[in-house]
Input
Amino acid sequence: MSKNIYYDYNKVLSYSNALLYFIIGERGVGKTYGITKIVINKFLKTGRQFAYVRRYASELKSATPKFFDAIIANNEFPNHKFKCTKDTFYIDDKIIGFSCPLSQAVKLKGSTFSNVDTIIFDEFILERGVYHYLQDEVHHLLSIIESIGRLRDIRVILLGNAGSTSNPYFDYFNLSLPYNSDIKTFKNGLIVVNYIKNEPYREIKRKSKFGQLISGTEYEDFAINNKFLYDNFSFVRKRTKSCKFFYILYINHKVYGIWIDKDNRMFISEKYEPNCYIKLTFNTDDHD
Output
């Protein structure tokens, strides 16, 4: 199969001023494979290392031993020996990288990673199932970035499938998808969102047995067309003109206004009356 149908990092990494690169694409398009080749080539040329992050230690336990498997199977670097231990990656018995669960970010404080210049966070968007997002998850990632990068310029590559745009990272940084293109920047270019639109890959996947199996289903939109599987706008609409402000709601350090209209429909909005004396919250972290 032609290699040029897979994801190419050259365009997104040309945004060299960025710190965070959010790369969202369908399964199998080559997101993880491509960045693995990049960090290997960089290490062989410059000695620079990488850090590999998953949300939970249990995910790393299964993912770390297989990290180089696809590279080895395709004989990409035939003259080199790859090895993975519990939390360290090696090439020719030299350390190329480290793994760390996001849930244990605090353990990195005080550690030295002066040779690491790339962080890979795989599966940053969750699919519905066993796992859930961490409390204050974005702060966990920021802690890892600070522990590893210090004041150095590094790159953080966040890889995800199209689960939902309602996730901690899009909410925290107020991100949105580049619907009219494939790349959109935020915060003066420090953040890049790349929404992959790889038609050659999709066409081949549609013709596969699996593609034919899911043809016409909701899962086809997710697995092939890269549409967000869990986004639902059934209860999203603008406030009606008869709305009156009711109270202020604090959730996860964010402030919302609760409005009720003449038909007793309740609206949660980012607009609120700051002088309102009725203020509610559901957890102690939001008390002040």
In short: The first strand starts at residue 20 and ends at 24. Residues 82 and 189 are 35 Å apart (CA to CA). The chain has nine helices and 13 strands.
